[in-house]
Amino acid sequence: MEGSDPVKVIKKAISETLVFYYPFAGRLREGPGKKLFVECTAEGILFIEADANVDLQQFGDAVQPPFAFLDDVLYNVPNSDGIINSPLLLVQVTRLRCGGFIFAIRLNHTMTDGFGLMQFMNAVCEMACGDTAPSVLPVWQRTLLNARDPPRVTHRHHEYDQVVDTKQINIPLNEMAHRSVFFGPTEISTLRKTLPIHLRHCSSFDLITACLWRIRTIALQPNPNDEMRLLCVANLRSKSKYLPSGYYGNSFALPAAVATAGNLCQNPLSYAVELIRKAKAKMTEEYMKSVADFMVINGRPNLTAVRSYAVSDVTKTDFEKLDFGWGKPIFGGPAMGGVATVPGLTSFYISYKNKKGEQGIVVPFSLPVQAMERFVVELDAVFKTKPLNEVGNTKKGFIRAAL
Asked: Contact at 8 Å (CB) between 329 and 195?
């Protein structure tokens, strides 16, 4: 692809891919009972091209979430980010002075999940490289995950418990501190050594999640009797017998682990690990059906955000392997944590290789400023090493001036 304009190549590839993924070119509408549906209007998506007088190497450590310059490489077109009656995808391709480029995308999450987005992006890459059709043809069939008739709730869904926010802890995202922490082999080994023998075979996800949930709770300083919730984004694809290859709709639920703040903070890490493993074990086809039935019966309630923390492992989506024809990216994955209807609610687990060449997981997240300061101290005490990485702040000024 040397000598080609990435803007023209990618824009053409997206246009060709939308022929197969035509619902993305439509608009969401809301019907009776708050039922969402896609009207295939062929209005298209939003596409922005931009140029930046910056070389990739100037970004340095800033090529890691949270990106301080995100607003410059993914412009929020006014009145474009609504759930209904708005474009379902927004893409910006920014050319860099060195010949590289930044590809950024925003999606309407009601349309697809991380795996569905990756399927779409793989198709775009294939088209950019000269293919005439995606290797995996898309399957719409949203009725596969419809509620049963009559609906039948068979599980307790703590992720939708109605909880009163007595401390008013939800604050705007732009008033929060944003950081990320890297979990490499050393950090994982340190955490694993704190567990009893029978738990030391647990997954890295369980370890990282237990660590973050516990320290985050300590940092927020809730009442010891307050219930804290950990929502695990669990995907059905690997467990389903009836979701066909090519299905790109949402196929995840958020089973919850619940504990009082006092128990979470005073008990060892193994306590949180056990709770998280039990919550993950709930995720079955029957659990997913029960969620759909629960939504119908209760009028599509919102997730419980009060004293909740949601984690989503996107390491298996392989965004870092996408290739438009210029090779694999320096970084591929969510640009920051905390971006959701409720600020600070969600963190993503992203594959990342640090300066030492260590492969691990980077986790961006957001907290109120004072809570973030306490979080750094607590995490430092766990690892007895240098404090949590603060990303991008020293680079932000000159990068923004050049964009």
From this structure: no
Find, among 72, 112, 88, 99, the residue nearest to 14 by Cα: 88
109 part of the active site: yes
Catalytic pick among 109, 155, 161, 226: 109
Spatial distance between the Cα atoms of 270 and 264, rounded to a whole number of angstroms = 10
Q: Which of 201, 293, 323, 380 is catalytic?
A: 323
Which residue is listed with tokens 């997913």? 288
Q: Give the span between the Cα atoms of 52 and 97, in whole angstroms.
A: 7
Cis peptide before 150 (omega within 30 of 0): yes
| CATH code for residues 145-402 | 3.30.559.10
Distances (CA, A) of 285 to 197, 235, 255, 279: 31, 10, 13, 15
Structure tokens at 110: 């009601």
- Domain formed by 6-139, architecture: 2-Layer Sandwich (3.30)
> Which of 256, 255, 312 shows the shortest CA–CA distance to 288?
255
- Mind listing the pLDDT tens digit for each residue in 334-346? 988 765 556 678 9
And the tokens for 336? 């920051």
pTM for this model (two decimals): 0.90
Domain-wise residue ranges, the chain: 6-139, 145-402
| Rounded-to-10 torsion of CA 272, 255, 308, 278 | -10
145-402 and 6-139 share a CATH fold: yes
The pLDDT tens digits of the residues spanning 67-94 come to: 888 899 999 999 999 999 999 999 999 9
